[in-house]
Specification:
Length: 107
């Protein structure tokens, strides 16, 4: 077991010395994997992306709460600092409620 460990350590040391030399030679001669390896043994290439992904657009959520300074909150996720501070000063959520603009449908 000790002998195998010593061999493994020796190989690791050799690799630490050889890898920088290989990198230097590859850069010096502008080598690519096909220059160094047989193509039949190469790992399959990942599909290259031809078109950049379009960003995901999410619909804007209407503000449910708003203060006089233009700060808004839709009521989703963590409550914003400006609202927490106002609640600590004694205000209620109802003080910041934005009037609903729903249109009632005729029956």
């Amino acid at each position: 077991m000790k002998k195998r460990l010593e061999e493994a350590m020796s190989q690791a040391n050799d690799a630490e010395e050889i890898i920088p030399l290989l990198k230097k030679v590859i850069a010096q001669y502008d080598l690519i994997p096909g220059d160094l390896f047989d193509q039949s043994h190469q790992a399959p290439k990942l599909a290259t992306q031809k078109h950049p992904k379009t960003p995901i657009t999410r619909p804007q959520v209407q503000a449910v709460y708003q203060d006089g300074n233009g700060n808004t909150w839709a009521g989703r996720g963590r409550r914003p600092t400006w609202l927490n501070e106002a609640l600590e000063r004694g205000h209620t959520l109802e003080n910041f409620k934005v009037p609903s603009k729903r249109v009632s449908r005729a029956k």
